[in-house]
User: Which sequence fits this backbone?
């Protein structure tokens, strides 16, 4: 499946403002399942772009501006080739096939921060919820994670939310309403409560012409590090495993580290009139 993705972010200001440096995480990550064929990034007003890799291995463009403006438009275009159909289940190393298991010292030295919870759980309610999904010990690792994935999806009703920020996992369980980023965080924190290393991913769901949640906007999911298979994607919005239709752009311990466009401006606190994000995915 070959897809074309246009991601446009527009900031409108009431009066001209001076733009500070902006961090742009918009270039899809290089990986075996999603092959990047073409990519372009345009910024208006004209900006100096400096490309580098951040600490998570994401392709980061730093934009600096020379002139004041009352409108900022950042547009990326990407053409990719995806498998289009689910592949076989990931093959795990024998020592990781059943849960619980221990990561090797070599792996742990790199992934330890990803196993540490990022959200408060003083009373242990989230930990108890996650551990309640463990059918027995030992239990197949992939089956446990698929059960967690389904439990996250069933814990809340999907609702698109345009407000910034991510809903805390305990609030998601209490309210029963979640956006894709809320589902992703609940899954990641559930996996971490089980002692597993998980990271958050922002990108796109490639389903041209589809109406599934996440097809007309940016999308978020989580990945769990499993020895032998590496980072395995789990999309809790749809309770699916694998990345055959997912286009990862940025990864991080928290979703705040994966924000597509972030920056500052010098002007009145109420200078920003509106921000509009448009995502188009076509075959």
Assistant:
């Amino acid at each position: 499946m070959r897809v074309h993705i246009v991601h446009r972010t527009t900031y409108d200001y009431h009066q001209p403002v001076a733009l500070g440096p902006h961090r742009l995480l918009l270039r899809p990550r290089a990986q075996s399942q999603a092959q990047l064929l073409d990519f372009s990034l345009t910024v208006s007003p004209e900006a100096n772009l400096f490309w580098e890799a951040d600490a998570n291995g994401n392709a980061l463009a730093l934009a600096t501006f020379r002139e004041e403006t009352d409108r900022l438009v950042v547009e990326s275009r990407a053409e990719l080739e995806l498998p289009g159909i689910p592949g076989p289940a990931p093959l795990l190393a024998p020592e990781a096939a059943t849960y619980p298991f221990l990561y090797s010292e070599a792996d742990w030295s790199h992934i330890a921060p990803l196993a540490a919870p990022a959200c408060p759980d003083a009373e242990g309610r989230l930990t108890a919820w996650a551990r309640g999904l463990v059918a027995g010990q030992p239990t197949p690792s992939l089956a446990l994670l698929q059960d967690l994935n389904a439990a996250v999806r069933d814990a809340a009703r999907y609702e698109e939310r345009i407000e910034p920020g991510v809903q805390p996992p305990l609030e998601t369980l209490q309210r029963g309403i979640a956006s894709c980023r809320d589902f992703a965080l609940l899954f990641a924190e559930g996996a971490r409560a089980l002692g597993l290393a998980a990271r958050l991913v922002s990108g796109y769901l490639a389903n041209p012409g589809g109406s599934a949640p996440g097809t007309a906007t940016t999308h978020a999911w989580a990945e769990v590090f499993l020895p032998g298979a590496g980072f395995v994607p789990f999309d809790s919005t749809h309770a699916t495993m694998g990345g055959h239709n997912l286009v990862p752009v940025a990864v991080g311990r928290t979703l705040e580290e994966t924000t597509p466009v972030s920056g500052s401006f010098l002007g009145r606190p109420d200078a920003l009139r509106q921000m509009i994000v448009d995502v188009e995915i076509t075959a």
